[in-house]
């Protein structure tokens, strides 16, 4: 069992129920990834959003670990992964090479790939470069402006899916964000953000 610090009060240490191995990517950069879920389950490679946000907020993706063994990449310069030695290797399209290096390292012929938010950009880059290596692709809340040339309808979608408890936390987080980075109550900001991020939908057989 590994121990490491996460979003916690000063002096508090969380124990996380997953291991964090490393691999060497195509240019020698050492990257970390989390393993979540039982070894007998089908593997799923996961890319967090942000961009450049620590993937801890993903948790088990609404108990997706009961259906898949998650391999959650710490992208370059994020979490425990080393920074990119060059700016070019850290560009959106080139980050796809880290996924391909991880696939090779894991010995997988093809992969299932899930990207969240900003991570969908890297996932799409991988799909464009290595279509024959992609078994399936799941894009969770991809920013619409990255995919199609149509007006942003996120406000309309949010208005149809709001509930009182979640909306109260979302409104509080938005108010905090209006005066960040001057905000002194950093713990409240990160805790509220964590609560919002963990509100995933339910995975069905279709999804």
Description:
- There is one protein chain.
- The strands form 2 sheets. The chain has a 6-stranded mixed beta sheet. The protein has a two-stranded antiparallel ribbon with strand order 1-2.
- The chain contains 5 helices and 8 strands, in the order ββββββαβαβααα.
- The model is unreliable at 1-16, 179-184 and 194-198 (pLDDT under 50).
- The protein has 2 domains: 3-151, Rossmann fold, CATH 3.40.50.1820; 153-207, no CATH class.
- It is globular and about 45 Å long.
- With 207 residues, it is α/β, with parallel strands linked by helices.
- The protein has helices spanning 96-106, 119-129, 154-161, 164-179, 186-197, and strands at 3-4, 14-15, 22-24, 30-36, 43-47, 69-73, 111-116, 134-140.
- Helix 1 packs across helix 2 (119-129) and helix 4 (164-179) packs across helix 5.
Descriptive keywords:
207 residues; 8 strands; Rossmann fold; six-stranded mixed beta sheet; alpha/beta; 2 domains
Give the count of structural domains.
2
On the 0 to 100 scale, the average pLDDT is 77
Order of helices and strands: EEEEEEHEHEHHH
| Percentage of residues in helical conformation | 25-40%
**Quaternary organization:** single chain
Name of the top-level CATH class of the largest domain:
Alpha Beta
Number of DSSP E strands: 8
Largest sheet, spatial ordering of strands: 3-4-6-5-7-8
What is the radius of gyration? 18 Å
What is the CATH homology-level superfamily of the largest domain? Alpha/Beta hydrolase fold, catalytic domain
For the record, the CATH architecture of the largest domain stands as 3-Layer(aba) Sandwich
